[in-house]
User: Fold these one by one.
Assistant:
Number 1:
Amino acid sequence: MPKMFLLFSHKLTDDQINDARKNLKVDEFIYLPKELQELWSNIPPDVDDIDNYLKPIKEFLEKHAKPNDYVLIQGDFGATYKMVNFAIDKNLIPIYSTTKRIAKDIYKDGKIITIRKFKHCRFRKYNPY
């Protein structure tokens, strides 16, 4: 059964875990080690080329992931683009989580407070262009 490697800055929700187990047949979820998670969550905005910055994350995937494992990739647009292409090149399956946004306005003391909730809908593959 495939594993799911997690390149994003949150914890999986119960809905995401259940969906991955049921529909993708994932049996194990692999979070990045703490130091790599810090890298992924803090992509520097002032660096022209992030290839060297992402190298430790790529090395982690090369060491631990096998073809047809899933990689949930969400975050900085440039880093996501590079890691999606890396995953495809390594015969991994890059995916992202789709959500339904529910917004509710609350009127209190002459002010409008907007509460947004995000509900997981499904995982979707990044397909090569």
Number 2:
Amino acid sequence: MIALDTSCSITTQDKEQVREWIKFLVSGFNIGQGPMQSRVAVIAYDKGYRHNMFFNEAQNLDQALEKISNMGLKEKGCRTHTYTALQVAREIYFTTAAGARPGVLKRFVLISDGVTNRKTKQNETLNQAVLLRESGVKIVVLSMVNAYDPEAANEFNRIADGRVQNIVNSNEYTSLLGPQGPLPSLVDAICTREGGTGGDTGNTVNPAGVTTQAPTQASTYVPTQAPTNPRRTTTDRTTTTVRGDPHVSCMLPSGDRICFDAYGDPGKTYLFFDDKRSRTKVLATFVSVEASTS
């Protein structure tokens, strides 16, 4: 889930920059309502909050991007009610009625440029952050503070339960989509599992949010060039079939490389990766393999 601060301290142009960046972030996920897909919810907040999308609304990535494109950015009032964003996330959005799934890792991305306003409500923000973390949601903060602000740094640190790796700083709105932007660090914070109070608990899940047990081997169908040494490969002009450990490695705009591993139930085939630009799709069919003994 993503919550965007739209208070008066952020210009309309900067809000539009962040909205485009949110679309860029969401585009990296296989969005949909299928068991191997990711779901996204979005709100804006300032004096109160404004609904944009529940987890069960977007049936595919295009619908999610359209929803985000139409997200209102005009503030209701010059306040930063961070406590409201945290509270409605727990009470309304991270519920089965809104499309949240039991047993799936849950993430809340807070995008803000400063402390709770009014400051007399700061303790309420911190209390709501504790309640959200205790419900099993990991909070990641994208700090858009344009100059060092000890109060904001302290509040963000406490919202994230002192986990500095879950706070990503980006003080230049215009560089959000650039090669030095915060995307790699934020993706790392979102995807990394953690323990402790408010950390990830329960079953292991894959990035798409389905509880599974990883099989030993799988067959992966990739319409690209075959790897150098696959264990068994058949190729035609459009499809390469590889039997082995399925994963996809890709380069981010920053130059960093990330790798996605596939997990699934034996005997089932999943759409694992879909690159709309290159029209590359990866299908993974999982098979059980008995461990050899000697």
